[in-house]
Write a structure and sequence with these properties.
Strand content: 15-25%
Bound molecules: adenosine monophosphate
Distance between the termini: 58 Å
Shape: globular
Number of helices: 4
Helix content: 25-40%
């Protein structure tokens, strides 16, 4: 009898953002492409959020997915960068407008700190546009390296500008 080797499945949370072109279609297209390597388990609603960092640019649509993948953290990052590239994202200025932005928020309970990759995502706990959709699908999740859950982090932020897009 041959041995059955099964790759381990990892739970990941991925943030999607778009503020150029048809933003809803961009999120949809990213989800379709992501599903080649990440089985999507939960997805949040879509939220419209004011631009962050640079204010003179269109509003973003943001969404968070929970998925399961056999990719390692760095392979997952490579895959997300490839999807961004295939979708036509050019190298852009930091915090500037973008067709699609894909970030790894969490990877199991791992804490990773390398020049290319930081997990949990470095700024996720300061950003209501990340924590509002994340709380919708995982409010009780503890953020590794902090003493708080998603909901507890979110309570410390002002999330007043973040509107459920489907409700507009
Ligand atoms: P961005 O401008 O959001 O596409 O991110 C620029 C760079 O951030 C990427 O090329 C990654 O090397 C780096 N990075 C560090 N940590 C993360 C993470 N958790 N998810 C995605 N990118 C990350």
């Amino acid at each position: 009898m041959g041995s059955i080797l099964q790759a381990a499945h990892h739970t990941v949370f991925i943030a999607l953002g778009s503020n150029l072109g048809n933003r809803l279609e961009n999120l949809q297209s990213a989800r379709t492409r992501l599903s080649e390597q990440v089985r999507i388990i939960k997805d949040s609603q879509t939220y419209e959020t004011p631009p962050w960092g640079i204010h003179d640019q269109p509003a973003f649509l943001n969404q968070v997915l929970q998925g399961s993948t056999t990719l390692s953290p760095l392979k997952l990052l490579d895959f997300l960068k490839q999807v961004e590239k295939e979708m036509g994202r050019e190298k852009s200025i930091r915090f500037g407008p973008r067709l699609i932005d894909l970030d790894i928020l969490l990877y199991d309970v791992r804490q990773i700190n390398t020049p290319r990759l930081t997990i949990p995502h470095k700024r996720m706990c300061e950003r209501a546009f990340v924590l509002v959709p994340l709380a919708e699908i995982a409010y009780n999740l503890s953020i590794p390296g902090t003493e708080r859950t998603v909901e507890e982090h979110l309570r410390l932020l002002d999330s007043s500008g973040i509107i459920q897009f489907d409700a507009l």
